[in-house]
Amino acid sequence: MLQVKGLKAGYGGIPVLHGVDLEIAAGEAVAVVGANGAGKTALVRSISGLMKAIDGRVLKDGQDITGVPGHRRLEHGIAVVLENRNLFTELSVMDNLRLAQSAGRRARHDKARFTLDEVCALFPLVGERRNARVELLSGGQQQMVAIARALLLQPDLLIMDELTTGLAPKIVKEILVVLNQLRERGLSILLVEQSIAIAAEMTERAYVLSVGRVIHEVRRGEWPAMLADKTLVKAYLHG
Ligand SMILES: Nc1ncnc2c1ncn2[C@@H]1O[C@H](COP(=O)(O)OP(=O)(O)O)[C@@H](O)[C@H]1O
Ligand SMILES: [Mg+2]
Asked: Could you write out the DSSP letters of every residue in 133-152?
């Protein structure tokens, strides 16, 4: 469903990704892991159309979307939860969700699969705080709102950049439970993580990104060996 081929991209036209290849199959959960500065966010921004490719291609369901700007990638079923979440913090939870709902309806009218009630049910905390301004919520609650909002854009590929960084373990657990439910519903997931423990728990496959290059691929069933390879873990990753 997603193919990235020889992708070069960077901030202000200076490449920080030097030819990245990756693939996600329909319904698959894949991780990109790598240390701070590896280029994970640049990769997320390139796939979601928020950063222009200098070279290489991004294909979604076989269609070349390399030149498609971010707001139009919704139509191709790509939604992203960015590191800073980009919520309208002065608006209520519900207002944030409704804005996404109408954007999702417009972009994906024939492919809608998540309703407001459903996303509130997935995250009961979001439902409970539906009338609160987002700025009054904890970081974890805001992250749940950000995921709920992304789902209302009706994606078939959900990309999340460092979802769990800085959140309390209890909240992380709650979020991972929901992500597993979403996987069971057939959503494809790209999880960008500094924590390989979380990547291993949540995905069947991962790409290790280092200084803008994929230096290793963890294939299905290789997580235990990967986690045991202390050199790899130490050299490129945070535990
Ligand atoms: N706004 C920016 N302008 C210029 N360079 C940046 C900017 N943000 C990040 N970089 C640089 O790009 C490289 C990749 O960063 P980034 O994509 O944020 O990696 P990661 O998400 O893995 O930490 C790093 O060397 C970083 O210093
Ligand atoms: Mg980042």
From this structure: BGGGS-HHHHHHHHHHHHHH
Tell whether pTM > 0.85. Answer: yes
Task: Give yes or no for residue 41 CB within 6 A of ligand 1.
Answer: yes
Residue 40 CB–ligand 1 contact under 6 Å = yes
Measured CA angle at 233 (ends 231, 236), to 5 deg: 95
pLDDT by residue (tens digit) across 130-148? 999 999 999 999 999 999 9
Instruction: Read off the CATH number of the domain in which 126 is found.
Output: 3.40.50.300
Phi, psi of 189 (to 5 degrees): -130, 135
| CA-nearest residue, atom 1 of ligand 1 | 11
CA dihedral for 129, 131, 132, 138, sign (positive or negative): positive
pLDDT digits (tens, 9 = 90+) for 51-89: 999 999 999 999 999 999 988 999 999 999 998 888 999
Task: Tell me the percentage of the chain whose pLDDT exceeds 70.
Answer: 96
Cβ contact 39:205 at 8 Å: no
Q: Are 10 and 19 in contact (CB under 8 A)?
A: no
> Could you tell me the residue range of the domain that residue 196 belongs to?
2-236
46 within ligand 1 shell (Cβ under 6 A): no
Ligand 1 atom at minimum distance from 38 CA:
22
Contact between residue 159 and residue 112 where contact means Cβ atoms under 8 Å apart: no
Number of structural domains, the chain? 1
